[in-house]
Design brief:
Radius of gyration: 26 Å
Strand content: 25-35%
Strand order of the largest sheet: 3-6-7-10-9-8
Helix content: 10-25%
Length: 490
């Protein structure tokens, strides 16, 4: 399970983020209602466990051994640089840096996933499948094992959709996470610490927690979540999915009572995007800011004067992004957003939860306070590139070229350790950018290009970024260095 340590509350806790997975489902018939429980009476969670356990799977990812080129320091490299072009067997000086090839070990990792449709769609975390050369899915109670392929994945939400070739699978019923109430009982289902088919119980202790690291508006629970729960399900007393176990809040990396799950409202939208577009469609309102209460408290702690906003609820705008949706609608710094599409906005987590369910081009009605007076405006949300278009991951085909890794003889001749040579150009973005046939690509957007996969990843990442451009550095077959800027969009 991926872990990121971050200070969350000064002098109180460290957060170890062990990102987990999400899952979404086709509309299914509602499960039979669990027996009603009188207030104050014990809750029987056996029904929820029986309903949800068959839908949670074990996922094993394998990253094969690879050859990588690494730099290391040689303090004598420049001292003994050969002014006679390598006659004495030395390089021509490289700031004391030399390169060598190393073999990375084969690595395996494990996580959980949730079956969301009977025909084999499974949701898990992006970090569970990221970089995997092989994915294996084992059904509950080790009944069957399948190879899986990735349909779509998104690092920011840490969600991924994978597919196995199977039928009549026990798909989970997905509930609306907006209906979840603080204090209701829940089960966390997964494969923690190598213990398959495990359930732990707790309650929903908070909603709309904004945790940073890209994942926002989380369901907080005290059900025990540990390493290996990545991709596991958070279910209600009816065994319906309400969220995906996503984070633990801990000083040690193990559960100490605080866990977080990605709500199904966000998960559903992500899965629909993966199926339809192959990538997550991220809409942006075009502001920077935070919860009014957090801002006011921070100013008071610093003995600074603060405006009277007329409320302690809502999101205060600290900056309006140029050419963004908010700027187009006339929103300004110090405005306080209180409602979007009829839904109350009390915190930044509330706002993030609403916008996370939208796509570029969607219109939203925003109510806000300016000088304590309520106003309303209709905004058209935009993507990271400032347009309302659907953003799709670009493939190598968009470049209009063919590539191969350079040979050992080229490495020796040109005194370089890696690179991808453009063996053919048949139009496309490379031709438009002036990149010639035979050019050896060494870096794209500051990332080294050692394999075709590196170039594919660079194109994919840039195509959905705010600036969809490839800044290419490399070398001509003659040894002359050259640089090109290749726009991926017109």
């Amino acid at each position: 399970m991926k872990k990121i340590v971050k200070s969350l509350m000064p002098a109180m806790y460290l957060m170890v983020i062990a990102f987990s997975a999400a899952s979404c489902n086709k509309t299914q018939a509602a499960a039979p209602a669990a027996p009603a429980v009188a207030p104050g009476q014990p809750v029987d969670l056996t029904y929820a466990a029986e309903k949800s356990l068959p839908s949670v799977v074990y996922i094993k990812s394998v990253i094969n051994s690879k050859t990588q080129t690494v730099e290391y320091s040689d303090p004598f490299e420049d001292f003994f640089s050969d002014p006679f072009g390598g006659f004495f067997g030395r390089g021509q000086g490289n700031g004391g840096k030399r390169q060598r090839q190393v073999q990375t070990p084969k690595r395996a990792a494990a996580g959980s996933g949730v079956i969301i449709s009977s025909d084999g769609y499974i949701v898990t975390n992006n970090h569970v499948v990221d970089g995997a050369d092989e994915l294996t899915v084992t059904l509950n109670e080790n009944s069957k094992e399948y190879s899986a392929r990735i349909i779509g994945a998104d690092a920011t939400t840490d969600l991924a959709l994978i597919k196995i070739d199977a039928k009549n699978l026990p798909a989970i019923v997905v509930a609306n996470s907006d209906d979840v109430k603080v204090g209701e009982w829940v089960l966390a289902v997964g494969n923690p610490l190598g213990l398959n088919n495990t359930v732990t119980a707790g309650i929903v202790s908070a909603k709309a927690r904004s945790m940073g690291q890209g994942v926002s508006s989380m369901i907080q629970t005290d059900a025990a979540i540990n390493q290996g729960n990545s991709g596991g399900a958070l279910v209600n007393t009816r065994g319906e999915l309400i969220g995906i176990n996503a984070m633990i809040y801990s000083q040690t990396g193990s559960n100490i009572g605080y866990g977080f799950a990605i709500p199904t409202a966000i998960m559903n939208k992500a899965v629909e995007d993966f199926k339809k577009y192959g990538s997550y469609q991220r809409a942006m309102i075009g502001i920077q800011g935070g919860s009014v209460k957090d801002y006011v408290d921070a100013m008071k702690d610093q003995d600074k004067e603060v405006n009277d906003y007329g409320t302690m609820e809502g999101v205060r705008i600290d900056k309006v992004i140029e050419d963004g949706a908010a700027a187009d609608g006339g929103l300004e710094k110090e405005d306080v957003i209180t409602e979007v599409d009829g839904k109350k906005v009390k915190t930044m987590g509330d706002l993030q939860a609403i916008i996370a369910q939208k796509r570029p081009g969607d219109k939203v009605t925003v109510k806000y306070l300016r000088n304590k007076k309520e106003k309303s405006v209709s905004l058209t949300l935009k993507n990271a590139q400032g347009t309302t278009k659907v953003v799709k991951d670009a493939d190598l085909d968009v470049l209009g070229g063919q590539f191969r890794e350079i040979t050992e003889s080229q490495k020796k001749e040109l005194q370089i350790a890696y690179g991808l040579q453009v063996t053919k150009i048949s139009g496309g973005k490379l031709k438009e950018g002036g990149v010639p046939q035979g050019f050896i690509i060494q870096r794209v957007n500051e990332e080294p290009m050692k394999t075709i996969s590196d170039l594919q990843d660079a194109v994919k990442k840039a195509s959905t970024s705010k600036e969809p451009v490839l800044y290419i550095q490399g070398i001509m077959p003659t040894g002359k260095k050259a640089y090109f800027a290749v726009a991926l969009q017109d």
